[in-house]
Write a structure and sequence with these properties.
CATH class of the domain at 2-92: Alpha Beta
Region (Disordered): 419-439
Pfam families: GARS_A, GARS_C, GARS_N
Number of strands: 21
Helix content: 25-40%
Strand content: 15-25%
Radius of gyration: 21 Å
InterPro entries: ATP-grasp, ATP_grasp_subdomain_1, PreATP-grasp_dom_sf, PRibGlycinamid_synth_ATP-grasp, PRibGlycinamide_synth, PRibGlycinamide_synth_C-dom, PRibGlycinamide_synth_C_sf, PRibGlycinamide_synth_CS
Distance between the termini: 35 Å
Largest sheet: 5 strands, antiparallel
CATH topology of the domain at 2-92: Rossmann fold
Keywords: ATP-binding, Ligase, Nucleotide-binding, Purine biosynthesis
Pathway: Purine metabolism; IMP biosynthesis via de novo pathway; N(1)-(5-phospho-D-ribosyl)glycinamide from 5-phospho-alpha-D-ribose 1-diphosphate: step 2/2
Number of helices: 15
């Protein structure tokens, strides 16, 4: 089959690489893609958020399956237009993507479906925000209600900072969701859904802060690893039973079947599993290490979901290795990322065994050089027999790549590799906490 992947980033490059490895897939195209995808497959310079342009490209290619990577095209209704044009589409409708586009909507769905989540209030004024902050107390968690590319949440002990973030959202015409703080480590679980049936992928953990030690501002994500050997036995089954299936059934009940990836952002707390947030697509950077371990053909899996035939799909099989992904970001990220810096060493890194370099914010210059073109530039994924060796492999790849101002965290998966991730006992607060409360 012929597959068209929509999106420009590292998540999409990971999807492209996995689809190319699927024997059922004869051809892969990307739009708009990036320099890394352009080296692997044909790319097409279309606006990923323009439904008509994406439909026209799907027709031109006679695509058998269209896969939408990022959240913005989903919120723009691209999947609706592609579906109405008669194509198999992997990606939820605009209405279903409200699970990500509006945190208030997601909270309403979870309440109706009896899904465990943080207590929350929606605020539209500074007075309402102040009341909610005082009701929940510190640490304060304030989230922009809309899409914020992973950077719309503030978690702080400082009430003034929390209220200032809420007021900035109000000034921009938005609303905020203020939540209780969740103790315990965070987990990302991608669930493939065809609207009725669901299949979980391997849980991962990502790192949202820009600096080592979970310091500095939130980003879209600076690295991730999988699997998570410290999770309690039966964790995935519990999430499917208490979170994924109730949410998918509630969405179907509302007439908005969810076809695509239900990204469950979770906290393993002293009161059990709690949903921090939902996203309506594969997460970045978790997708890169998760798909590096997937042995089951990805194209066949996504097509089965698009056709509502997931219950007939083959059981998933995984490589036994551990995967660690380290994001390399441009100078000045996440504030005002610098573009145009020449990147060297990618081929040297990819020459290493069990190292994969996935492009995100890259482009090709007029003279044929690969240059930075966004905040998060590359993800370097390393495979190993355990976390220690996978980290070593990933960082061995990272140090071979350079450009002016390149930055990356040196502690991705370090705590887990050293056995220092603490899952709180029921009724006991955790020494650590859900460091970012997602985005």
């Amino acid at each position: 089959m012929k597959v068209l992947v929509i999106g420009p980033g590292g998540r999409e490059h990971a999807l492209v690489r996995s689809l190319l490895a699927d024997p059922h897939v004869s051809e892969v195209h990307a739009a708009p893609g990036n320099a890394g995808m352009a080296a692997d497959v044909p790319t097409h310079a279309v606006n990923a958020q323009d439904p008509d342009a994406v439909v026209a490209l799907a027709r031109e290619l006679s695509a058998d399956l269209v896969v939408i990577g990022p959240e913005a095209p989903l919120a723009a209704g691209v999947s609706d237009a592609v579906r109405e044009a008669g194509f198999n589409i992997f990606g939820p409708s605009k209405a279903a993507a409200q699970l990500e586009a509006s945190k208030a909507f997601a909270k309403d769905v979870m309440a109706e479906a009896n899904v465990p989540t943080a207590m929350a209030r929606v605020a539209t004024t500074a007075e309402e925000a102040a009341d909610a902050l005082d009701a929940f107390g510190a640490p304060y968690v304030v989230k922009d209600d809309g899409l914020a590319a992973g950077k719309g949440v503030v978690v702080t002990e400082d009430r003034v900072t929390a209220l200032a973030h809420a007021e900035a959202c109000f000034a921009a015409g938005g609303t905020v969701v203020i939540e209780e703080f969740l103790d315990g480590p965070e987990v990302s679980l991608f669930v493939i859904s065809d609207g009725k049936h669901a299949v979980p992928l391997s849980p991962a953990q990502d790192f949202k802060r820009i600096f080592d030690g979970d310091e500095g501002p939130n980003t879209g994500g600076m690295g991730a690893y999988t699997p998570l050997t410290w999770l309690p036995s039966g964790f995935v089954d519990e999430v499917m039973e208490r979170v994924a299936y109730p949410t998918i059934r509630e969405m179907a009940k509302r007439g908005t079947e969810f076809v695509g990836v239900l990204y469950c952002g979770l906290a393993v707390t002293s009161r059990g599993v709690r949903v921090i947030e939902f996203n309506a697509r594969f997460g970045d950077p978790e997708t890169q290490p998760v798909l590096a371990r997937l042995k089951t053909p990805l194209g066949a899996l996504l097509l089965a979901a698009a056709r509502g035939e997931l219950d007939d799909a083959e059981q998933l099989h995984w490589r036994p290795e551990t995967a660690v992904g380290v994001v390399m970001a441009s100078a000045n990220y996440p504030d005002s990322p610098r573009k145009g810096d020449v990147i060297s060493g990618i081929a040297d890194a990819e020459a290493l065994d069990d190292v994969f370099v996935l492009h995100a914010g890259t482009a090709e210059s007029d003279d044929g050089e690969t240059v930075t073109a966004g905040g998060r530039v590359l993800a370097v994924v390393g495979l190993g027999q355990d976390l220690v060796s996978a980290r070593g492999t990933a960082y061995e790849g990272v140090v071979r790549i350079s450009w002016d101002g390149a930055q990356y965290r040196r502690d991705i998966a370090e705590q887990a590799a050293e056995g220092r991730v603490h899952v709180p006992a029921q009724g006991q607060p955790a020494p650590g906490s859900a460091e970012g409360q997602a985005n």
